[in-house]
Specification:
The structure is a homodimer of 116-residue chains. Chain A is mostly beta strands and 116 residues long. Chain A has no helices and ten strands. In chain A, strands 2-3-4-10-5-8 form a six-stranded antiparallel sheet, with no helix packed on it. Chain A has a three-stranded antiparallel sheet with strand order 7-6-9, with no helix packed on it.
Chain lengths: 116, 116
């Protein structure tokens, strides 16, 4: 069994094209022997966002702090802390920090094959 | 895309042998079309606990509220809100509410094949 706290995990900048001012902490991934799915926590600086992109696998996510909007081709949906999301494969999406002054964070899980 | 809040999900009693005063909310499971893994939130009444059991699949869990102890054959490890756990398959374990007065809750994810 592995127990972690968020403070003990290094935050790495997300280098993907289209990402802005985002870091990721891999809570449980291949390096921990996680067999099926990976748990990650992302932090968005004020105005930061993930890429507006699409991929063949799903996300399950939980909004942890701040004012995050989910951007889709239909527009931007504001989310509340505690909201839980299932983004299916092939749904275009972006997590965007709607605040210009406060950071925001969310947990996001993916199938293990898609976690580097 | 599906967005849920915890308040909108029915809490069902956990009927497993060895469980005491536990409810489960299935946030994302087979009924939502979740492809790979299921997200659930468990609430333990004061003194409540999950079964002290073992199974072939892993848990990834987050402590959400209250004073939860993780019971293993080595003893009971108190956990803090925000702690994140990877319980590997075949590791005997139990989530136990250590408080006699306050409820406690945790999020627990499993491979989809093991979510009814």
């Amino acid at each position: 069994m592995i127990v972690k706290t968020i403070e003990g995990i290094e935050a790495l900048p997300v280098q993907m094209e289209g990402a802005k001012d985002v870091t990721v902490r891999v809570v449980f991934g291949p390096g921990d022997g996680a067999p099926t799915f990976a748990m990650r926590v992302f932090e968005l600086a004020p105005g930061g966002h993930t890429p507006f992109h699409v991929h063949p696998f799903e996300h399950e996510a939980v909004i942890l702090s701040g004012r995050i909007g989910m951007v889709t081709p239909e527009g931007t949906r504001p989310l509340a802390v505690g909201d839980m999301l299932l983004v299916m494969g092939d749904e275009k999406h972006q997590f965007r920090n709607l605040s210009d002054t406060e950071s925001a964070s969310f947990m996001c899980l993916v199938p293990i094959a898609y976690q580097k």
